[in-house]
Amino acid sequence: MALSRLDNLYRQVILDHTNHPHNKGVLDEATSQIELNNPTCGDVIQLQLVMKDGVIDEIAFDGHGCSISMASASMMTDAVKGKTEKEAIEIIADFLELVQGENIGEKKKVLKDAQMLGGVAKFPARIKCATLAWKALERGIIEENQTVVTEELHSEE
């Protein structure tokens, strides 16, 4: 019975972020713009960042894809907005471990709603959907003040 309630909560949180995404849109003054796609399922994410003094001041995404992909992008923006580059990179690493099925313990809390995506570890094909926005963010931080046009992610995995 408890597992059924957890599954319901999982679905509700994903549907809420899919139907009412946070930070979806376009930023006029973006310092980094990244567009990635996952050719295995057709998900596309365009991520924009405004970095100020090493902090993610603004973040927005647009794109299309499955509910996991779009919900994950929404959750990711909530988890990293206002964080330093270093903190964001650590949060990304925690998320990537979580969706691979690793037990990250108390570090889950910094992921906010994104911790609910830990269940995708049971569905390897969905991991790519869940990680697309996070990989775009990682690239946006590493390649700050750059515009990366569409790149395929996971094309050989």
Topology:
Elements lengths: L1 H18 L12 E7 L4 E10 L2 E10 L2 H14 L4 H15 L24 H19 L4 E6 L5
Parallel strand pairs: 1-4
Antiparallel strand pairs: 1-2, 2-3
Briefly say what this structure is:
By secondary structure, the chain is an alpha+beta fold. The chain contains four helices and four strands.
Model description:
With 157 residues, this protein is of the alpha+beta class. The chain has 4 helices and 4 strands. A hairpin with a 4-residue loop joins strand 1 and strand 2. Helix 1 packs across helix 2. The chain starts with a helix and ends in a 5-residue tail after the last strand.
Key terms:
single chain, 157 residues, alpha+beta, Sufe protein. Chain: A, four-stranded mixed beta sheet, 4 helices, 42% helix, NIF_FeS_clus_asmbl_NifU_N
Give the N-terminus to C-terminus distance in angstroms. 36 Å
Number of strands: 4
Domain module tally: 1
What characteristic shape results from the CA principal axes? globular
Largest sheet, strands/sense/barrel: 4 strands, mixed
Q: How many separate helices?
A: 4
- Mean pLDDT over the residues: 90
Structural class: alpha+beta
Domain NIF system FeS cluster assembly NifU N-terminal: 10-129
InterPro entries: NIF_FeS_clus_asmbl_NifU_N
Protein name: Iron-sulfur cluster assembly scaffold protein IscU
Organism: Vagococcus luciliae
